[in-house]
């Protein structure tokens, strides 16, 4: 199973030591709610919706603080942005309810929200200017590269520790590596690793802005930085080879053709012909068109981020919950999340938007279910739809699941895309 092994991806040794030394209580570490109020202070965000226009006006004046060139910014080290944050589920039972699911374990959607907030704070820590309380940068999540889990169950009554630091920097973007550990028997053991990519923009969130360069200090840090470069190249390759731009490979074409042949209705052979049109479902299979769920969210001011757009973590939680429900109804048993990868934030979602989510089973193998959730905003005035995000989730079900079978060419492309994501996740594991 994919859970056999969870390697803490090589952290800089300085950071690794602080991790492994974790014992029972962690006094003095900031909590998740402190992370959020810190972010509001750094940006000068309003605490109530009425004042948000004025708060945004005040941010305009920070334009003068932006660097004209990256070279004008002091370089930073990995340990400069290193943060540890506590989620005291064990020591503060009153916060447990918000994190609890019906199976008496932790809601993974809430963890996605926390990772998103922590990733942004790590980047603000990397770009902090000594003399200024407020940052001229608007830092937003561009991409969730991957989140790999090595625990099936996250316990609702044990403290959780998050750690994170900037691991790679471009001109205007930063890669953040985060780890989540949970306290058991006096020691923190790993639960998940996450890699996010954040981008810096000007105070009004309109144009890219430069960020401090990163200087690796040891061979291990060199290695981590190099991995960040590789991750960037891999993403470019993955998107260049996208099935929306390029034809499937010869091997993939054979897979699709085999599925097609496997679904032809040969009962008509008596009449001497097999039609291209008449198709039948193979045993223990489900047509792809019957393996989807849809959802709708009205985006209220309560869900806004510090820039008064809808919080990326909220979008991830909603997409994850729909993905989980899709996997649950498809496999008829409780699914567990194995991996999240390649979440692109293509467009911000405005407060007041109607958010349409659709979850689709696009690939299955043994107990595994690969789910794609597509989210788009609908503008009721113009009647236009715009894609904002695509999410990819890999679940493992308690029992073996039926095979999902595409019928049309478009569904076959979704199937191959799902297979590519699944294969990449399994390689990582």
UniProtKB/TrEMBL annotation:
GO terms for cellular component: mitochondrion. InterPro entries: HOTDOG_ACOT, HotDog_dom_sf, Thioestr_dom. Its main location: mitochondrion. The keyword ATP-binding does not apply. GO terms for molecular function: carboxylic ester hydrolase activity; fatty acyl-CoA hydrolase activity. Coiled coil: none annotated. This is ACOT9 thioesterase. It comes from Poecile atricapillus. The gene is Acot9.
